[in-house]
Backbone:
């Protein structure tokens, strides 16, 4: 692996009580992962971004205020950080989130993304296909593929970003803020372990009617609650398969599926392939032991 760019402010990694691990140094890009163990539940900050980064969640979740807009980020989300951006973050669902980042050079952003105009801002709702491509990039980097293949995978992820993923249509900024907060509380509850809860239970936790929660959640995220929950469950199973777990019946019981066949149907619907095929695909890409890097940067955060 080549020299790691000076991406992170040393104080930031220490502040997160976490570690940054390099995955690949590519032309004009640097792929890395962040393991965050910050346990502060309230928003803290501000922190300021020093560079361009695509940050993709893999597990866990956190609350983030980016450019004044507050959203909950879990395994179905990503964001693009920009130089000078003000950011606050907190962990109301608890510590332990893991994310993958792709640092982008100023020249790359200028030449390929019109200086950033073609990159979306704010919370990005990612598809299961995007998440699988993301995890396969991580797996490819871990097994040491050559730079052109890793770069091609990274470019594919960048090309998949869809500004249309942002939802709007609120009557007033206050209504939008209230609806986003409601969706964030619900996403937070599911990330905290309520993956098997029904809509009535989630509505009770959010303090509203099931009908209101269903309508607002779809408006904010573009997904139904059931679809979002199954996305999270499919990705949780994918993460466990990636970690080497093989007992599908046990995973089905743990994540609230009726049985192994139900798990297989949901995973196939959301990831376009069966758990057994995914297990074989990821079997050769078990995480290797990488020494954490600290005090290597000027960028913030994840």
Residues:
């Amino acid at each position: 692996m080549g020299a790691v760019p000076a991406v992170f402010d040393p104080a930031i990694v220490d502040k997160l009580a976490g570690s940054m691990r390099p995955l690949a140094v590519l032309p004009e890009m640097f792929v890395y992962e962040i393991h965050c163990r910050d346990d502060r539940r309230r928003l803290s900050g501000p922190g300021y971004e020093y560079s361009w980064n695509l940050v993709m969640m893999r597990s866990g979740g956190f609350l983030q205020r980016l450019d004044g807009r507050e959203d909950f980020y879990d395994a179905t989300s990503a964001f693009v950080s920009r130089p000078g951006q003000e950011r606050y973050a907190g962990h109301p669902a608890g510590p332990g989130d893991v994310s993958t980042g792709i640092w982008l050079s100023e020249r790359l952003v200028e030449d390929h993304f019109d200086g950033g105009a073609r990159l979306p801002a704010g919370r990005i709702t990612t598809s299961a296909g995007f998440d699988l491509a993301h995890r396969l990039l991580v797996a490819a980097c871990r097994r040491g593929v050559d730079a052109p293949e890793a770069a091609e995978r990274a470019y594919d992820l960048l090309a998949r970003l869809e500004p249309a993923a942002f939802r709007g249509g609120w009557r007033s900024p206050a209504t939008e803020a209230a609806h986003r907060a409601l969706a964030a509380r619900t996403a937070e509850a599911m990330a905290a372990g309520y993956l098997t809860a029904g809509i009535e239970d989630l509505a009770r936790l959010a303090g509203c009617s099931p009908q209101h929660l269903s309508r607002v959640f779809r408006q904010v995220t573009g997904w139904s609650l059931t679809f979002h929950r199954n996305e999270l469950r499919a990705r949780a199973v994918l993460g466990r398969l990636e970690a080497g777990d093989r007992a599908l019946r046990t995973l089905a019981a743990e994540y609230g599926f009726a049985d192994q066949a139900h798990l297989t149907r949901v995973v196939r619907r959301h990831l376009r392939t069966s758990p057994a095929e995914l297990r074989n695909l990821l079997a050769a890409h078990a995480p290797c032991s990488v020494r954490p890097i600290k005090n290597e940067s000027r960028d913030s955060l994840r």
Remarks:
- The longest strand covers residues 19-26.
- The mean pLDDT is 81.
